[in-house]
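Lecture notes, unit on protein representations.

Consider one protein chain, 362 amino acids long.
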Amino acid sequence: MSVDKHLASARKYYSQSRLADAIYEYRRVLDLDPNNQEALDVLQSLTDDPAEELAGQSGKIKTNFLAHQAQEHSGSIWKKPPLMVLLSVLVAGAIYGIYQLVVSIMNHDKEVAMRYVEVHLQRPVQKDGQAYLSVEIVNLNPQAIKDTKFKYQISGMDGSTLASDTVTISTAIPAGDTRTFAEVKLAKVAGQASRMHADLVDLQLGPKPAILPENANKFIEAAAMKPVDAINEFTQIVKAQPDFVPAYVRLGQSLLSNNDLDLSIKAFEKAVKLDPEDANAHYHLGVAYFYKADFAAAKKALEEASRLASDDPVISAALKQASVKAGGKDKIKAGDLDQTTTGATEAAPESEPAGDSQPVEK
């Protein structure tokens, strides 16, 4: 074989990192051309032998090839391309597995929480082909929810679907509490609407509450009770979990519903003291002061609630009414703070929970 062919083979092997084969081919080059500069240079770099020795020992080149091979493999095996790819796949798989586990846990918590959320559709009306209604959301969970989404369907007199869509109420619903949103705009209705049906489809959970599981279950059960029956239950919860703010708020609500203004105010003040950043505690404290006819104190508490939760229309409505009262000497009248303002837990007689159908008024 000619020098050129050996050189070509050596270069190919060298480019492929087949160093043993490259050394062999360059040695063959020196057998045929002892002064070939390329062969001398490459072999010197690969064997650490002087060029003179290589040229003088063309047929019997002494190499430290094994040392070079050891050096070549001295790096971490994880740096080899195939193993790097495999390692990347394994790491990505582990990260994805952890992600799926977290998502699964979060979805499980959400699914459980959705069992204790009620959506009531109130006073649906149709104006100029546009459907409106008030939406009451009852959250029995010991943690807040937001972005409550429900799907509705409006049917005609013959049962045909006139409109179908989803509505999302972004405002947070505090733990164990209720919010009512008036004049929620729905899709345009082409035809005479007869009935409407709605189903809760999604929500987002607020921060996980610092409450023991057994007390969380008791909280849910108590939140579903009538206020007069819930007083004792919430009293037991605050004794067992004296730092859980929503339990004090619900205890205060139950006492207020039972016309025990002074004790309800104490419960709300305790909640505010435990967490001055809890807008719902300030809100209910303001409502209690309102019913006690202390409109200045009510206005102050509701202003703080509004500062902490400026997007809550219920708080805004209560503050507006308290401000009017604080500016005059009007006596409190029944209905001054209606259900839309107070967030009472009991649904109005005309309300209908999501999942049931209800006639649409004209």
